[in-house]
Every structure is written in structure tokens, then in C-alpha cells.
Write a structure and sequence with these properties.
5-stranded antiparallel β-sheet, about 450 residues, single chain
Length: about 450
């Protein structure tokens, strides 16, 4: 069907004609606060809504008594208790831990601090900020030691940037599709506003020796996480982050200071940062030789493969968020690229046979989450939803088939991911049956 009535400003509403198979609609229908879609929904296309005349408004108990006092630090509503991270160490034992972001229960592009993903090999490290020090030394003219108070005297900068574990989405490399939700498959990535001191500000102060081409970043946690990083990245956009979404860093995300390398794989964004040493060449640490390398089918390995590739995945609908009857829905998800801005995201409802371009939520920032949205008129039949992102450098998210052709076949057992696989950015497919149930499938 189409809706072409003129608006109050005299212009026609965007059409509701399908622009790709299986009910995908023109993204322009979302303009004007979704007037077209909202009108279609309230005229009976969805059974989830009723008209105002059908059920008179009544006062609930919350309207009949005073509320509770406001606490010093606000917490989410008790009705949102399911919006939490999943833990690899649920018993909170003294060992390494990981926590995954529940993207399917969030919207927008910024991840709340308490839901930001975490990889902590030595557990959450508790550091006294008054005793913590950052040293910059090596191939510099004047080595310096910085306290947290001293860093607060330098000019501050803020930027919104995603951080993604190099092993995020590794379950897609399993021989069979693992039946899990977005959180389990893609929960090791998050996006926040980071505020701190640009690393170039401190390097200008210490004076860089012309022989320096790399720097070593080291954390103060028990494993003393360390990585070799090109000095060019420091000059480009590296930051000593002190704040996360406006407040001091979350302890699990590096309090009191961490390194932020926008677009680079997560382990290089060293948390609990205590040392930066300028050197001539990489030190070949375990985290850049045995780990965080990509083994090719020919036995060779990709090393020093830093930026996270262009990627996207649909969060709504997705496994666990089943369809509630035929009608109009908004397909929504997250896209990002370590090589810059997202230029477009395409969505398919027929397993990649046809594609429609989604609307990108503003602002579209470099090396940050960009949310995409597209209206969909689901007819109640089977469908396979996919998203495919392209970044401003022209990189296109590959199909799972193309990804495996490049990296080699899965090397794990059925239903078990090859978790040594890094940088998996293959297209994710959600299958929808005629009951509206959503599952992870390979297409």
C-alpha cells in the first residue's frame, strides 16, 4: 500500500511501497518522527495498540501517593532488572572475568558505564588514585612521572568512540549457528564518550627522540597487560582517558586512567595505564605474537592487525525479542568501523537476495557506534534478516561465506566457536519463523 497524502507543509509523505523483498520499506518513511509508520500502526496494522477511546485512562497506585526520596546516585528502575551484563565469572571468584553488553535491551549509541563490556584477566583492579603514577620514558628527551592530579591541569578533550574486543563475534565462526542472543554473540563491544588528555600533549612535553617509532603501553593490573603501538597512532588520536560518559572511569574499565586508541582492537586500549615507553620497534610481547594474531589457512599469521573492521548487527528484532504478530516494525541495529565513519547500512529481509538502505541516526561519527533504522511491514511469513555496513573508506562488511573463504574453514567442534578467531566482522543472520520466533541462522 502507499500513503501519499500531503503534509501540512504541502509536501507529500514518503511512500510506504516496499523497496526490497519481504516487506522492507523506504527509510524516508521514518522522517518527520515516523508520522507515516505511526499512522499505519494505529489504523490496525498492529494488535499491540488500542485506541484511546477503547480503554479510559485510570490512575495507578503511583498516581495516588508520594514517591520515594531521590537517592544520592540514581539507579535504573526496578522494572529494568533484566538489563544487565552477562558474566563469565558469575560466582565472582578471584580470577579473570568478562562481561557482555546487552545490546538487544538498549537503544541509541552510548553504552551506560555499568553495562560497558569488560575483559579483565586479573579481575577488576582497585587502585588508589592518589598513589597511582603514569611514567613516560624511553626514547624521550625528558622522562616524566604524572599523578592523576597533575593530569587534570592539562587541556582536556572529549570524543565518542567504540571499543571492541578482538575476539568479539567469534561464535559466528562456529561450524553450526550457536543459538544465542546478541549479547552472547556480539556483546564484547561498547561505545562511550571519553574525556582526558591527548597523548600528543604529554609527548610534546617530554620531547620525542626521532628514533622512536613505537611505544609500549603497560597496565598496573596483575597480568600487566602490555602492547606495542605505532607512534603514529599516538600522534593521530590517542588519549589518556580519565572520564567515561561524564564521570570518572568505571573501575572495571581502567580507573583511574586508561589508554584510548579509537578504532583499534580492545586489548590495545590498555586499562589501569601506568607506563608508556617509546621504543624503536615492537617488543613482540605475548599479546602480539601468540595472542591477537590471525592464523591463515596457509599456516602464516597476520600480525599487528590493529583497526576493527567495518561491522553491523541487528539488535531489534533479534533472538529473545520475538515478533508480536504481523504488521509494521522498525528494524534497528548498530554499525561501526575502526577506519572512520559509516557511509551506509543496507538491510535484507530475504537472506541477502535483495537489499534496502537504512536510515542512519545522527550524528554519524568516526570510529563510533552509528545506529541504523528501517521500517518493515512483516506479513507473518518466514524471513531472514541481515545488515551490511559500508564505511567511508569503501570497506564493505563481508558475508560469512566470504569471511570463511579468506580465513579458512572453522577449526572448532560443532556448536563450539573457534575462539582464537580474531576480528570476525561477518554478516549476522536472524531467522524468523511464522510464529514470530527469532533465531540465529546461517544464510
Amino acid at each position: 500500500m502507499s500513503m501519499r497524502k500531503p503534509r501540512k507543509d504541502g509536501r507529500a509523505f514518503p511512500p510506504l511501497d516496499p523497496v526490497a523483498a519481504n516487506g522492507l520499506l523506504d527509510r524516508r518513511a521514518l522522517l518527520g518522527r515516523g508520522i507515516v509508520i505511526a499512522g499505519a500502526v494505529t489504523t490496525g496494522a498492529s494488535t499491540a495498540l488500542t485506541s484511546a477511546a477503547a480503554e479510559p485512562l485510570t490512575n495507578g497506585p503511583w498516581s495516588l501517593a508520594p514517591g520515594v526520596p531521590i537517592p544520592p546516585y540514581g539507579q535504573p528502575s526496578k522494572f529494568e532488572q533484566k538489563v544487565v551484563r552477562t558474566l563469565s565469572n558469575p560466582k565472582l571468584e578471584p580470577r579473570g572475568s568478562a562481561a557482555r553488553t546487552p545490546h538487544h535491551l538498549l537503544n541509541g549509541t552510548i553504552t551506560p558505564n555499568g553495562l560497558h563490556f569488560v575483559i579483565a584477566r586479573g579481575g577488576e583492579t582497585e587502585i588508589d588514585p592518589d598513589k597511582h603514577r603514569l611514567v613516560i620514558h624511553g626514547l624521550v628527551k625528558q622522562p616524566m612521572v604524572y599523578t592523576l592530579d597533575a593530569l587534570h591541569r592539562y587541556p582536556m578533550a572529549s570524543r565518542i568512540s567504540f571499543v571492541e574486543c578482538g575476539g568479539n563475534s567469534a561464535p559466528l565462526y562456529s561450524k553450526e549457528p550457536i543459538q544465542a542472543n546478541v549479547q552472547a554473540l556480539h556483546g564484547l563491544c561498547s561505545c562511550a564518550e571519553w574525556t582526558g588528555v591527548m597523548l600528543t600533549t604529554l609527548l610534546d612535553e617530554v620531547g620525542v627522540d626521532p628514533k622512536a617509532k613505537w611505544f609500549i603501553a603497560e597496565g598496573a593490573d596483575l597480568p600487566t597487560m602490555n602492547r606495542s603501538i605505532p607512534l603514529a597512532k599516538a600522534i593521530d588520536d590517542a588519549m589518556i582517558a580519565l572520564y567515561q560518559n561524564g564521570e570518572r572511569l568505571n573501575p572495571a574499565n581502567g580507573y583511574p586512567m586508561r589508554l584510548l586508541l579509537p578504532g583499534y582492537e580492545g586489548n590495545m586500549n590498555v586499562k589501569w595505564l601506568r607506563r608508556i615507553k617509546l621504543v624503536e620497534s615492537p617488543v613482540m610481547a605475548i599479546n602480539e605474537t601468540k595472542q591477537y594474531t590471525i592464523l591463515r589457512p596457509d599456516g602464516k599469521a597476520w600480525q599487528f592487525f590493529f583497526p576493527q573492521e567495518v561491522k553491523s548487527f541487528i539488535t531489534h528484532p533479534s533472538p529473545g525479542l520475538n515478533m508480536q504478530g504481523p504488521g509494521f516494525y522498525e528494524i534497528s541495529g548498530i554499525s561501526f568501523s575502526g577506519n572512520g565513519r559509516i557511509s551506509k547500512v543496507e538491510v535484507s529481509a530475504d537472506g541477502g537476495k535483495s537489499w534496502a538502505q537504512a536510515a542512519l541516526q545522527e550524528p554519524v561519527l568516526s570510529k563510533a557506534f552509528t545506529r541504523f533504522r528501517i521500517p518493515w511491514n512483516w506479513d507473518g511469513g518466514t524471513a531472514i534478516l541481515q545488515s551490511r555496513a559500508t564505511d567511508e573508506a569503501g570497506n564493505v562488511q563481508p558475508s560469512r561465506e566470504a569471511f570463511i573463504a579468506e580465513r579458512g574453514p572453522p577449526r572448532g567442534t560443532p556448536n563450539v566457536a573457534a575462539f582464537t578467531m580474531e576480528h570476525c566482522n561477518a554478516i549476522t543472520s536472524w531467522g524468523i519463523n511464522d510464529k514470530g520466533e527469532v533465531s540465529h541462522v546461517y544464510a
